[in-house]
Amino acid sequence: MPLQYLKKAPKTSKSDASDVNEIVQNILDEIEQGGDEAALKYARKFDNYDGNIELTKSEIEAACALVPERLKADIRFAHDNVKRFAQAQKATLADIEYEV
Questions:
Q1: CA 56, CA 77: separation in Å to the nearest integer?
Q2: Which residues does 34 contact at the CB level (< 8 Å), separation at least 6?
Q3: Mean pLDDT per segment of 10 residues, for the chain of length 100 residues?
């Protein structure tokens, strides 16, 4: 049976990855130097977002109240598993010196 695509992405012009990398690096550098102000500049430019980037304590509490308790428990469970695994993995690491 021949391969049949159900959906294909439209063809786009090819771009040099180094150009993209350079542009992204410049953006990251600017955000690192300019902080929140630079991040907001790019949020406006790319996302048309002009709101607050920091939530108040009451906004955070309201958002948390919308998350079902079961989902919160599942997230805590997954977090604990990942943390325990990372700690166990880290405990197995050892420094090695090898003379060539």
A1: 27
A2: 41
A3: 80 73 96 96 95 93 98 98 96 85
